[in-house]
## 1
Amino acid sequence: MSCVRCATSRTPKPVYVQPAGMDKLIELMNSSLLSGAVIAVLASWLTSRARNRQDQQAEIGALRVQADAMTVAVVELQAAVAANRLLWDGPAERARSFLLAVMAAADGAARARIAGGTHAQSAQVGFGRAG
């Protein structure tokens, strides 16, 4: 015969029961670790983004300075070209250049003629074909 008392008299395994507030504390700690990790990742991302943006702004400022310098250089070059045209490309300057060439040729021809050369030789010296 089996005893009802013997069948139920086995000692149960001890079960560890946490205090009532401990579960909430563990849950809160797990969620705070996760939120701390998320906050750290976001802070790192925002810092790198702010640094990149600051570098871009500095580069844009440098490019603006270079563009301003290039604009000033182009304007100065255009002014120099305009002054060159006004001073050296006009009909008066062309006439001066032609007169200078004629005088140089006449000088060479006269020196060749004085040295005893013929008229043809003096013309060749004047135009620079004989020396």
Note: Helices lie at 4-7, 20-88, 91-114, 119-126.
## 2
Amino acid sequence: MTHTPIPHKTIFPVSAMLQIEMALAGAGSDLSALDRLVGHRLNLLAFCAILKAQPSAGPALTRALAPSFATFLKRDFLSLIAEEEEGLLHHLERRLLLGDDLDDVIRQLSDEHRQDCQEARQLAAACLEFADGIDADWSDLCDAMAHFAERQRRHLVWEDATILPVARERLTADDLAAWGEAMERRYRFITCQAR
């Protein structure tokens, strides 16, 4: 499987999206673990918008982008889910108070995370098959990408309305520091695995 490398020099200016990504990466330890998670969530929203736009892109552009889509799904997306499960929800559950009534919400989010990880792996495989020209139907792939993107958008909106406000209010500086250290270890592990 051969894919065109990204050129180091180009006639096009550096994308604002790439600049945003570099700014998030550069801020790193200056941001709390929760803020870094929100940055990754913003990245997911941008990725989902790109997925949903593939019918306008056409098969040739989708084929060129498909390996990058697969990498995002296998590395960045799975890393985000790990942070939500092992970081955000883990620390938040310890800070819930009687009457918060978020136990069912957290269980539902965890169930969706498991389903989303499975769907992400399947979509990543479909992207790689399409990139390699292996009997893949472009319109089916576009439908699968749009479905995944819409599911993620709804999921993020739900978390924004239920979990994140409570996390901002309740997580302590010690929670965020411990989470940040664990986040760095998990990210190093996941990025090594994805290679």
Note: The CA atoms of residues 78 and 118 lie 10 Å apart.
